[in-house]
Specification:
The protein is an alpha/beta fold and about 280 residues long. It is built from ten helices and ten strands. α6 links the parallel β8 and β9. It has one domain: NADP-dependent oxidoreductase domain (TIM Barrel, Alpha-Beta Barrel). The protein has an eight-stranded parallel sheet with strand order 3-4-5-6-7-8-9-10. Strands 1-2 form a two-stranded antiparallel sheet. The chain binds NADP nicotinamide-adenine-dinucleotide phosphate.
Amino acid sequence: MTDIPVISANGLNMPALGFGTFELDEDTVEDILPRAIELGYRHIDTAQIYRNEAAVGRAVANSGIDRSSFFLTTKVWVDRFSPDDLIASVHGSLKRLNTDYVDLLLLHWPLFGGRGMNPTLDALMRTRREGLARNIGISNFNIDQTEQAVAFCGEGQLATNQVEYHVYLGQDRLRRVLARYNLVLTAYMPLAKARTVNDPVLWQIGEQYGKTAAQVALRWLVEQDRVAAIPATSNPHHAASNIDIFDFSLSAADQERIAGLEKKRRICKPEGLSPAWDD
Ligand SMILES: NC(=O)c1ccc[n+]([C@@H]2O[C@H](COP(=O)([O-])OP(=O)(O)OC[C@H]3O[C@@H](n4cnc5c(N)ncnc54)[C@H](OP(=O)(O)O)[C@@H]3O)[C@@H](O)[C@H]2O)c1
Protein backbone atom coordinates (compact mmCIF):
# COMPACT_ATOMS: atom_id res chain seq x y z
CA MET A 1 0.00 0.00 0.00
CA THR A 2 1.37 3.42 -0.97
CA ASP A 3 1.97 6.05 1.70
CA ILE A 4 0.87 9.40 0.33
CA PRO A 5 2.61 12.60 1.48
CA VAL A 6 0.48 15.13 3.32
CA ILE A 7 0.31 18.80 2.38
CA SER A 8 -0.09 21.29 5.20
CA ALA A 9 -1.33 24.86 4.85
CA ASN A 10 -3.62 27.11 6.89
CA GLY A 11 -4.55 24.31 9.30
CA LEU A 12 -5.13 21.83 6.48
CA ASN A 13 -3.41 18.43 6.45
CA MET A 14 -4.45 16.81 3.19
CA PRO A 15 -2.99 13.85 1.28
CA ALA A 16 -1.34 15.27 -1.84
CA LEU A 17 -3.10 12.72 -4.04
CA GLY A 18 -6.84 12.19 -3.87
CA PHE A 19 -9.44 10.14 -5.69
CA GLY A 20 -11.79 12.20 -7.88
CA THR A 21 -15.37 11.04 -8.43
CA PHE A 22 -16.81 13.46 -11.02
CA GLU A 23 -18.93 11.56 -13.57
CA LEU A 24 -18.75 8.31 -11.57
CA ASP A 25 -22.29 7.14 -10.81
CA GLU A 26 -23.11 5.40 -7.54
CA ASP A 27 -22.68 1.88 -8.96
CA THR A 28 -19.25 2.77 -10.34
CA VAL A 29 -18.21 4.37 -7.05
CA GLU A 30 -19.37 1.26 -5.14
CA ASP A 31 -17.24 -0.83 -7.46
CA ILE A 32 -14.04 1.23 -7.69
CA LEU A 33 -13.78 3.03 -4.36
CA PRO A 34 -13.26 -0.06 -2.15
CA ARG A 35 -10.41 -1.08 -4.46
CA ALA A 36 -8.97 2.43 -4.36
CA ILE A 37 -9.12 2.42 -0.57
CA GLU A 38 -7.27 -0.92 -0.53
CA LEU A 39 -4.59 0.67 -2.71
CA GLY A 40 -4.13 3.42 -0.13
CA TYR A 41 -6.32 6.31 -1.30
CA ARG A 42 -7.74 8.13 1.73
CA HIS A 43 -8.48 11.54 0.25
CA ILE A 44 -11.77 11.35 -1.67
CA ASP A 45 -13.25 14.24 -3.63
CA THR A 46 -16.99 14.38 -4.20
CA ALA A 47 -19.64 17.10 -4.57
CA GLN A 48 -23.35 17.54 -4.07
CA ILE A 49 -23.83 17.82 -7.82
CA TYR A 50 -22.04 14.49 -8.50
CA ARG A 51 -24.94 12.63 -6.87
CA ASN A 52 -22.62 9.97 -5.49
CA GLU A 53 -22.03 11.15 -1.91
CA ALA A 54 -24.05 8.24 -0.49
CA ALA A 55 -21.94 5.70 -2.37
CA VAL A 56 -18.77 7.40 -1.08
CA GLY A 57 -20.19 7.22 2.45
CA ARG A 58 -20.95 3.51 2.08
CA ALA A 59 -17.48 2.71 0.73
CA VAL A 60 -15.85 4.53 3.64
CA ALA A 61 -18.11 2.87 6.23
CA ASN A 62 -17.67 -0.60 4.72
CA SER A 63 -13.88 -0.27 4.54
CA GLY A 64 -13.58 -1.02 8.25
CA ILE A 65 -10.99 1.77 8.41
CA ASP A 66 -11.46 4.46 11.02
CA ARG A 67 -13.23 7.58 9.71
CA SER A 68 -10.38 9.71 11.06
CA SER A 69 -7.99 8.11 8.55
CA PHE A 70 -9.99 9.53 5.64
CA PHE A 71 -9.98 12.99 4.13
CA LEU A 72 -13.41 13.68 2.61
CA THR A 73 -14.11 16.73 0.48
CA THR A 74 -17.50 17.80 -0.75
CA LYS A 75 -18.68 20.92 -2.55
CA VAL A 76 -21.82 23.00 -2.17
CA TRP A 77 -23.67 23.54 -5.41
CA VAL A 78 -24.43 27.10 -6.54
CA ASP A 79 -28.19 26.92 -6.07
CA ARG A 80 -27.63 26.41 -2.31
CA PHE A 81 -25.59 29.55 -1.72
CA SER A 82 -28.12 31.47 0.36
CA PRO A 83 -26.92 31.04 3.97
CA ASP A 84 -29.86 28.92 5.19
CA ASP A 85 -29.79 26.70 2.10
CA LEU A 86 -26.05 26.23 2.41
CA ILE A 87 -26.24 25.04 6.01
CA ALA A 88 -29.20 22.75 5.25
CA SER A 89 -27.44 21.34 2.19
CA VAL A 90 -24.32 20.54 4.20
CA HIS A 91 -26.43 18.62 6.73
CA GLY A 92 -27.82 16.72 3.72
CA SER A 93 -24.31 15.96 2.46
CA LEU A 94 -23.21 14.73 5.89
CA LYS A 95 -26.22 12.44 6.09
CA ARG A 96 -25.48 10.97 2.67
CA LEU A 97 -21.78 10.66 3.48
CA ASN A 98 -22.72 8.97 6.75
CA THR A 99 -20.42 11.19 8.79
CA ASP A 100 -20.54 14.06 11.31
CA TYR A 101 -18.08 16.26 9.46
CA VAL A 102 -16.26 16.66 6.17
CA ASP A 103 -12.55 17.36 6.17
CA LEU A 104 -12.95 20.01 3.50
CA LEU A 105 -16.01 21.92 2.29
CA LEU A 106 -15.80 23.99 -0.89
CA LEU A 107 -18.00 26.45 -2.74
CA HIS A 108 -18.15 24.72 -6.12
CA TRP A 109 -18.27 27.72 -8.50
CA PRO A 110 -18.16 31.48 -7.84
CA LEU A 111 -21.72 32.26 -8.92
CA PHE A 112 -23.35 34.57 -6.42
CA GLY A 113 -25.77 36.74 -8.38
CA GLY A 114 -26.60 40.19 -7.06
CA ARG A 115 -26.02 39.36 -3.39
CA GLY A 116 -22.23 39.03 -3.80
CA MET A 117 -20.06 36.40 -2.16
CA ASN A 118 -19.93 37.62 1.45
CA PRO A 119 -23.15 36.07 2.85
CA THR A 120 -22.18 32.71 1.34
CA LEU A 121 -18.64 32.95 2.71
CA ASP A 122 -20.10 33.85 6.09
CA ALA A 123 -22.24 30.68 6.02
CA LEU A 124 -19.23 28.66 4.89
CA MET A 125 -17.27 29.90 7.93
CA ARG A 126 -20.25 29.01 10.11
CA THR A 127 -20.06 25.36 8.94
CA ARG A 128 -16.54 25.20 10.32
CA ARG A 129 -17.46 26.92 13.59
CA GLU A 130 -20.28 24.42 14.03
CA GLY A 131 -17.98 21.47 13.34
CA LEU A 132 -19.67 20.42 10.10
CA ALA A 133 -16.42 21.03 8.20
CA ARG A 134 -12.85 20.86 9.50
CA ASN A 135 -11.50 23.04 6.68
CA ILE A 136 -13.16 25.32 4.16
CA GLY A 137 -12.21 26.54 0.73
CA ILE A 138 -13.23 27.68 -2.71
CA SER A 139 -13.24 26.24 -6.19
CA ASN A 140 -12.97 27.83 -9.62
CA PHE A 141 -12.33 31.28 -8.14
CA ASN A 142 -10.19 33.55 -10.31
CA ILE A 143 -7.45 35.73 -8.83
CA ASP A 144 -9.68 38.68 -8.13
CA GLN A 145 -12.35 36.51 -6.49
CA THR A 146 -9.71 34.67 -4.46
CA GLU A 147 -8.39 38.00 -3.17
CA GLN A 148 -11.93 39.11 -2.28
CA ALA A 149 -12.65 35.85 -0.45
CA VAL A 150 -9.42 36.02 1.54
CA ALA A 151 -10.11 39.66 2.38
CA PHE A 152 -13.57 38.79 3.71
CA CYS A 153 -12.68 35.58 5.59
CA GLY A 154 -9.30 36.78 6.83
CA GLU A 155 -5.87 35.36 6.06
CA GLY A 156 -5.35 31.80 7.24
CA GLN A 157 -9.04 30.89 7.04
CA LEU A 158 -9.36 29.34 3.58
CA ALA A 159 -7.40 26.16 2.90
CA THR A 160 -7.52 25.71 -0.86
CA ASN A 161 -8.76 26.85 -4.23
CA GLN A 162 -9.62 23.78 -6.31
CA VAL A 163 -9.09 24.63 -9.98
CA GLU A 164 -8.23 23.03 -13.28
CA TYR A 165 -4.49 22.44 -13.49
CA HIS A 166 -2.43 20.06 -15.60
CA VAL A 167 0.57 20.01 -17.93
CA TYR A 168 -1.42 21.83 -20.64
CA LEU A 169 -2.74 24.71 -18.52
CA GLY A 170 -0.57 27.35 -16.87
CA GLN A 171 -1.65 28.60 -13.46
CA ASP A 172 1.47 30.58 -12.52
CA ARG A 173 -0.28 33.82 -11.65
CA LEU A 174 -2.98 32.17 -9.56
CA ARG A 175 -0.36 29.97 -7.87
CA ARG A 176 1.59 33.04 -6.79
CA VAL A 177 -1.53 34.56 -5.22
CA LEU A 178 -2.43 31.29 -3.47
CA ALA A 179 1.14 30.98 -2.16
CA ARG A 180 0.96 34.53 -0.78
CA TYR A 181 -2.01 33.48 1.39
CA ASN A 182 -0.71 29.94 2.03
CA LEU A 183 -3.56 28.23 0.17
CA VAL A 184 -3.12 24.83 -1.48
CA LEU A 185 -3.93 24.58 -5.17
CA THR A 186 -5.96 21.39 -5.60
CA ALA A 187 -5.57 20.39 -9.23
CA TYR A 188 -8.71 19.01 -10.84
CA MET A 189 -8.63 17.31 -14.24
CA PRO A 190 -4.95 16.61 -13.46
CA LEU A 191 -4.75 14.22 -16.43
CA ALA A 192 -6.42 16.81 -18.66
CA LYS A 193 -9.29 14.31 -19.00
CA ALA A 194 -6.92 11.56 -20.24
CA ARG A 195 -5.43 13.79 -22.94
CA THR A 196 -2.06 13.39 -21.21
CA VAL A 197 -2.00 9.59 -21.41
CA ASN A 198 -0.74 9.45 -25.01
CA ASP A 199 1.51 12.50 -24.93
CA PRO A 200 4.80 11.58 -26.68
CA VAL A 201 6.92 13.97 -24.58
CA LEU A 202 5.50 12.60 -21.33
CA TRP A 203 6.04 9.03 -22.55
CA GLN A 204 9.64 9.78 -23.45
CA ILE A 205 10.24 11.29 -20.03
CA GLY A 206 8.48 8.38 -18.31
CA GLU A 207 10.59 5.76 -20.05
CA GLN A 208 13.65 6.90 -18.10
CA TYR A 209 11.87 6.17 -14.81
CA GLY A 210 9.82 3.15 -15.88
CA LYS A 211 6.65 5.25 -15.61
CA THR A 212 3.72 6.03 -17.93
CA ALA A 213 2.84 9.42 -19.37
CA ALA A 214 -0.09 9.68 -16.93
CA GLN A 215 2.21 9.02 -13.99
CA VAL A 216 4.60 11.71 -15.21
CA ALA A 217 1.69 14.17 -15.56
CA LEU A 218 0.60 13.51 -11.96
CA ARG A 219 4.12 13.50 -10.57
CA TRP A 220 4.79 16.90 -12.17
CA LEU A 221 1.83 18.32 -10.22
CA VAL A 222 2.54 16.84 -6.80
CA GLU A 223 6.21 17.85 -6.94
CA GLN A 224 5.12 21.48 -6.87
CA ASP A 225 4.87 23.33 -3.59
CA ARG A 226 1.36 23.15 -2.10
CA VAL A 227 -0.21 21.43 -5.11
CA ALA A 228 -2.49 18.39 -4.69
CA ALA A 229 -3.99 16.31 -7.50
CA ILE A 230 -7.27 14.39 -7.60
CA PRO A 231 -7.38 12.15 -10.69
CA ALA A 232 -10.55 10.13 -11.33
CA THR A 233 -10.84 6.66 -12.75
CA SER A 234 -13.30 3.81 -12.95
CA ASN A 235 -10.50 1.39 -13.84
CA PRO A 236 -8.65 -0.43 -11.02
CA HIS A 237 -5.44 -0.66 -13.08
CA HIS A 238 -5.49 3.08 -13.60
CA ALA A 239 -6.23 3.63 -9.89
CA ALA A 240 -3.16 1.53 -9.02
CA SER A 241 -0.99 3.32 -11.54
CA ASN A 242 -2.11 6.82 -10.52
CA ILE A 243 -1.08 6.28 -6.91
CA ASP A 244 2.27 4.75 -7.86
CA ILE A 245 4.04 8.08 -8.30
CA PHE A 246 5.87 8.54 -5.03
CA ASP A 247 8.98 6.48 -5.75
CA PHE A 248 10.65 8.71 -8.34
CA SER A 249 11.45 12.39 -8.91
CA LEU A 250 11.57 14.30 -12.16
CA SER A 251 14.96 15.78 -13.02
CA ALA A 252 15.22 19.54 -13.47
CA ALA A 253 15.64 18.98 -17.23
CA ASP A 254 12.43 16.91 -17.38
CA GLN A 255 10.53 19.49 -15.35
CA GLU A 256 11.67 22.09 -17.84
CA ARG A 257 10.54 20.03 -20.81
CA ILE A 258 7.09 19.74 -19.23
CA ALA A 259 7.06 23.43 -18.41
CA GLY A 260 7.71 24.00 -22.11
CA LEU A 261 4.51 22.24 -23.26
CA GLU A 262 1.81 24.59 -24.49
CA LYS A 263 -0.13 25.82 -21.47
CA LYS A 264 -3.35 27.27 -22.84
CA ARG A 265 -5.67 24.27 -23.00
CA ARG A 266 -8.48 24.92 -20.53
CA ILE A 267 -10.99 22.07 -20.75
CA CYS A 268 -13.58 22.94 -18.10
CA LYS A 269 -15.28 26.25 -18.92
CA PRO A 270 -19.03 25.74 -18.49
CA GLU A 271 -21.10 28.65 -19.72
CA GLY A 272 -23.04 30.39 -17.01
CA LEU A 273 -20.70 29.18 -14.26
CA SER A 274 -17.20 30.19 -15.36
CA PRO A 275 -15.71 33.42 -14.03
CA ALA A 276 -13.49 35.60 -16.24
CA TRP A 277 -10.46 33.30 -16.25
CA ASP A 278 -7.05 34.84 -15.67
CA ASP A 279 -5.31 33.10 -18.58
N1 LIG B 1 -14.17 21.69 -8.75
C1 LIG B 1 -14.58 21.46 -9.97
O1 LIG B 1 -15.31 22.25 -10.57
C2 LIG B 1 -14.16 20.19 -10.64
C3 LIG B 1 -14.30 20.07 -12.03
C4 LIG B 1 -13.89 18.88 -12.61
C5 LIG B 1 -13.34 17.87 -11.84
N2 LIG B 1 -13.23 18.02 -10.50
C6 LIG B 1 -12.66 16.94 -9.63
O2 LIG B 1 -11.43 16.51 -10.19
C7 LIG B 1 -11.47 15.13 -10.44
C8 LIG B 1 -10.61 14.77 -11.63
O3 LIG B 1 -11.07 15.40 -12.80
P1 LIG B 1 -11.70 14.60 -14.03
O4 LIG B 1 -12.25 13.32 -13.54
O5 LIG B 1 -12.68 15.48 -14.70
O6 LIG B 1 -10.47 14.42 -15.03
P2 LIG B 1 -9.08 13.60 -14.99
O7 LIG B 1 -8.86 13.00 -13.66
O8 LIG B 1 -8.05 14.50 -15.57
O9 LIG B 1 -9.32 12.47 -16.07
C9 LIG B 1 -10.20 11.40 -15.86
C10 LIG B 1 -10.15 10.56 -17.12
O10 LIG B 1 -8.85 9.99 -17.27
C11 LIG B 1 -8.92 8.58 -17.40
N3 LIG B 1 -7.81 8.02 -16.65
C12 LIG B 1 -7.56 8.13 -15.32
N4 LIG B 1 -6.41 7.53 -14.99
C13 LIG B 1 -5.89 7.04 -16.15
C14 LIG B 1 -4.71 6.32 -16.45
N5 LIG B 1 -3.82 6.00 -15.51
N6 LIG B 1 -4.51 5.96 -17.74
C15 LIG B 1 -5.40 6.28 -18.71
N7 LIG B 1 -6.53 6.97 -18.48
C16 LIG B 1 -6.78 7.36 -17.19
C17 LIG B 1 -10.27 8.19 -16.84
O11 LIG B 1 -10.79 7.10 -17.55
P3 LIG B 1 -10.86 5.62 -16.89
O12 LIG B 1 -12.06 5.62 -16.01
O13 LIG B 1 -10.98 4.74 -18.08
O14 LIG B 1 -9.58 5.43 -16.14
C18 LIG B 1 -11.13 9.43 -17.13
O15 LIG B 1 -11.66 9.35 -18.44
C19 LIG B 1 -12.96 14.86 -10.64
O16 LIG B 1 -13.26 13.50 -10.54
C20 LIG B 1 -13.55 15.70 -9.56
O17 LIG B 1 -13.44 15.05 -8.31
C21 LIG B 1 -13.61 19.17 -9.88
